[in-house]
Amino acid sequence: EKGSNIVGWTKKYENSSIAYLQFGDGPSSYKNENFRKLIKQSISWVIKETGWLIKKFIYYLNKIFIEYYD
């Protein structure tokens, strides 16, 4: 069975920058230090590319998904 080996991509849409990661969403994924590092780097890239408006949204995502598992 053929499938895609793409696990992530980035895209610009209008004034937004998008980072998509396809790795899983369970507790075991977030316990992996490398996975958390990749998410943190993706968040930083989106903030850098998109600006202040997204910062508040990303701040809360960081609180929920990253700091909880650290």
3D architecture notes:
The chain has helices at 27-31, 33-50, 52-67, and strands spanning 8-13, 16-21. Helix 2 (33-50) runs antiparallel to helix 3. The protein contains three helices and two strands, in the order E-E-H-H-H. It has a two-stranded antiparallel sheet. It has 70 residues and is α+β, with helices and mostly antiparallel strands. It is flat. The longest helix has 18 residues, at 33-50.
Task: Lay out the secondary structure.
Elements: E1 8-13, E2 16-21, H1 27-31, H2 33-50, H3 52-67
Antiparallel strand pairs: 1-2
Kindly summarize this structure in a few lines.
The protein is α+β, with helices and mostly antiparallel strands and 70 residues long.
Relative strand content: 15-25%
Mean pLDDT: 76
Computed structural class: alpha+beta
Instruction: Please outline the major beta sheet.
Output: 2 strands, antiparallel
The total count of helices amounts to: 3
Strand line-up of the largest beta sheet: 1-2
Tell me the total number of β-strands: 2
Low-confidence stretches: none
Q: SSE order in H/E notation?
A: EEHHH
Proportion of helical residues: 55-70%
Radius of gyration: 13 Å
Shape: flat
Query: What is the distance, rounded to the nearest whole angstrom, between the alpha carbons of the first and last residues?
Result: 37 Å
